[in-house]
Write a structure and sequence with these properties.
The chain is an all-alpha fold. Helices cover 81% and strands 0% of the residues.
Length: 190
């Protein structure tokens, strides 16, 4: 079952973490900016797909915050994370536009995106640790792991076709991390 249908049915986030969704929102915001013609040319797919990702992740986070178990503690942590994402992205955008020109903009923002994109793919590592300790995949949704693997594979191939190292590097790492998640799922599913 998809994570958010479980959260909705239980009216509680349980042991699910908002961190992967916060990382994905930040990732989509930064890649959206990278896709703009003022940063890199001919990246309409990067722009449109990440624009849709921003909307989807924002909806997920609103649902997560709404159903968070410890309203004061978890909701305030989630809000702080969201404020950090917005603040970090705004500062990154301002620095990119204010301090750099042309290819230097692409290099600066691309480098930031490599780090954030890799963090997004690495975010489930804490859940993977829990899977190994508990020998249960209850809090590592299969569809999220599968979609992450497929997403990383498609973007890595796209990066290879575009010859864009800033797309290849984090998504190549995402393929490896996604394969590791799927391997853990195969080992510990019941």
């Amino acid at each position: 079952r998809p994570t958010f249908s479980i959260i909705y049915k239980q009216k509680d986030t349980g042991r699910f973490s908002a961190f992967p969704y916060v990382c994905t929102l930040m990732n989509c915001l930064l890649w959206f900016f990278y896709g703009l013609p003022i940063i890199s040319e001919n990246n309409i797919l990067v722009l449109t797909i990440n624009g849709a990702g921003i909307v989807i992740e924002a909806v997920y986070l609103v649902i997560f915050i709404y159903y968070a178990a410890w309203p004061v503690k978890v909701r305030s942590i989630a809000r702080v994370l969201l404020l950090f994402v917005i603040f970090f992205c705004a500062i990154t955008f301002a620095i990119t536009l204010g301090a750099f020109e042309g290819d230097d903009r692409t290099t600066f923002l691309g480098s930031i995106n490599v780090i954030i994109n890799t963090m997004m793919y690495a975010a489930p590592l804490s859940v993977m640790k829990m899977v190994i300790e508990t020998k249960s995949v209850e809090y590592m949704p299969f569809m999220l792991s599968l979609c992450s693997f497929v997403n990383a594979t498609i973007w890595a191939l796209y990066g290879i076709l575009k010859q864009d190292k800033f797309i290849i590097i984090p998504n190549g790492l995402g393929v490896l991390l996604g394969a590791l998640q799927l391997g853990l799922y195969a080992k510990y599913r019941k």
